[in-house]
């Protein structure tokens, strides 16, 4: 791969990192700014007019309950990052070890895990998350668990296939010959060889998870209405759009788009450095 290609990928990744840093700062600073009174709370404003267009007092307008759309959108960034971080973290912690164990040991355990993971993998992401969210109920942790189950098969499949390839290498055979046990080999030798694909997959899954979380909220299966979340705000804004009230949908949708764009940029940049992820 030539230097120019790597330089372009590094630039794309830096754009993604910059966008993510902005969202992280927003999610950290917004509660503090609300607490000290610099910006108003995003809850129902008793004195705020409903469906007020963007103005100096409300930069992004107000919604059907008089809540400040700008503040709700800013608060939603912290909620989105929290749910997505929990979801992909759980998926990595569960999917990577299962993939390594399955790929290395093989046998009946491998067959059972492959059937389970392939079954989950064939179900469309949004459909599976909707079913899980319906069964688990609404809430931040439940939404994270629903998304986690959706992405575990992806880490399992990638890591299992790479483990099955690496376990036949000479250095693994040499480790076996000196009496190294399976879990020592997995931890000491295999882990560092199969983990390189995870950062790329993680960033792309995180981008997808933002959209899936928004889809759950739009369908009314994500988070409770009192928790600021972009998908649920878009759901509530849907009925007002035909009447010319555009601001209640524009700003949450724009925030979701920018976060997905940042994560996608990061994933595209990392793919060049860590290698292409294949099933």
Could you write a compact summary of the structure shown?
With 279 residues, this protein is an all-alpha fold. The protein contains ten helices and no strands.
Describe the fold and architecture.
This protein is mostly helical. The chain has a single domain (3-274), classed as MetI-like (MetI-like fold, Orthogonal Bundle), CATH 1.10.3720.10. It has 10 helices and no strands. The chain has helices at 3-35, 69-105, 107-122, 125-136, 140-166, 170-177, 182-194, 198-218, 230-237, 247-274. The two termini are 22 Å apart. The model has no long low-confidence stretch (mean pLDDT 85).
Number of domains: 1
Tell me the CATH superfamily.
MetI-like
- Number of E strands: 0
Our Rg estimate from Cα atoms comes to: 22 Å
Instruction: Sketch the topology as an H/E string, one letter per element.
Output: HHHHHHHHHH
CATH topology type: MetI-like fold
Distance between the termini: 22 Å
Number of helices: 10
CATH secondary-structure class: Mainly Alpha
Q: Assign the CATH architecture.
A: Orthogonal Bundle
> Kindly state the mean pLDDT as a whole number?
85
